[in-house]
């Protein structure tokens, strides 16, 4: 009798343990991600908002509450608006041709070809290269006196372009670095989406005598629209945060201060400006305000592009 | 004819993709005077190892390489493990709030990392992790992309019947994870590990902020070379070559799998 009770108790305990295992273990398994995300993702985000309402520097332990002062100062800050302009300028010059090129490249790769793997691997080599390496290499290529690019331009009678010194030229040089690093990667993402498009659609179109370009416009692009929207959104977010390229370009080209983005701030982006405020001037309060406004711009730009690409894709139908 | 044009275009793109790296090796293997030559040299010279030795003399590059290996390696292993764990829960276990938590996970992939850099740095100052590798490793132990990637993979690759059979045999969830899920997850986890290793190796902004030039990772050491020796391009490019080539070699050997992984993640994303 006693043993029977013990067995029943043991069975009951096992059942409880089993139920607990089923109910609780999923939470335990996802806990590492959410704990780290809260500690190093959410907390900093909220704390930035708090800091932005204060006069908060590394040099002083007193943090005076100043309300929206940092934000109103920002509105009259010429360097801030200059950085905003540069960010949008570099963002547009680098992203628009890059995405068009990526779609076209994916289209070329999306047919039976020899050496597919070879082409795909070479396409991704730039993306594997670190951004530091990219900027060091391109700063050399874009050198004024002995750079390879100016040497090639001299064949056409164009002499001594000082890439880092002008606004437009420095934006082109920086955009070239970004394009080099990301075009192949985006092409592969487009290619993945294109391979999911049913082949019968192309066969039917070919029978109807539709040209290659027409097929790209009328079949491929509408069919991969979700991927285009995704890539455009991600690229926009990336473009709004450009930092390493202008930071290192300013260092490598010898064009003045490192965090100022050139002597006239001609290629200082928003992210670089925030970096300058935070880790050069140690003005954390003002830097936090600037990074929140920057976040607002990111969301705005990504949102507008999201709506635009959804529209545009629809127009092809 | 059009076929030939396609091949020509793709070959040209392949050339442009590889040429800047090749050219950096050309410059890195020459003497500084070669930079003033017109036309610029297009073939490697014999000075590579002397220049590389100069890199090791100028910055603590051996330590930087070791740091980068340790940081990227431990991050890659941790991301593989924790992402598989969370991916298993999201793909195959049922629990309250699952959908909303998965949605939150995916949404976090969109938040710009730089917004939190200033308070994250202040936090690191507070817990005295600045200058230490903890500051790089701990926040990166698991990420939303990894969780999402493994969720996608396991929901397709892991047969639910296999899990049910295990349950009937009385296995706990943990035993199932260890004996059924991990072996199934291996191919995708390997790809995730390689992608994570590469991005951790190439990470620049956060290490630059939180580390000191005396105890750098490869990228921080390279940026010291690039900004401290403005006119010494050869030194900068030699360092770049040493810091980049290991990764490029790995990529060329395992490139096929890595590309497969990226494209797989892309379709679902």
Automatic annotation (TrEMBL), chain A:
Keyword Repressor included in the entry's annotation: no
InterPro entries linked to this entry: ABC_transporter_permease, MetI-like, MetI-like_sf
Entry's localization field: Cell membrane
ABC transmembrane type-1 domain: residues covered: 84-305
SUPFAM superfamilies: MetI-like (SSF161098)
Membrane topology: Multi-pass membrane protein
Keywords: Cell membrane, Membrane, Transmembrane, Transmembrane helix, Transport
Xref: Pfam families: BPD_transp_1 (PF00528)
Entry's transmembrane regions: 27-51, 88-109, 121-142, 162-180, 227-244, 284-308
Family: Belongs to the binding-protein-dependent transport system permease family.
Name of the protein in question: Cellobiose transport system permease protein
Organism: Nonomuraea africana
TrEMBL record, chain B:
Primary location group: membrane
The keyword Kinase appears for this protein: no
Annotated membrane topology: Multi-pass membrane protein
Residues covered by the ABC transmembrane type-1 domain: 65-254
Localization terms from the record: Cell membrane
Domain of life, source organism: Bacteria
PANTHER family for this protein: ABC TRANSPORTER PERMEASE PROTEIN MG189-RELATED (PTHR43744:SF12), ABC TRANSPORTER PERMEASE PROTEIN MG189-RELATED-RELATED (PTHR43744)
Similarity comment text for this entry: Belongs to the binding-protein-dependent transport system permease family.
UniProt name for this protein: Cellobiose transport system permease protein
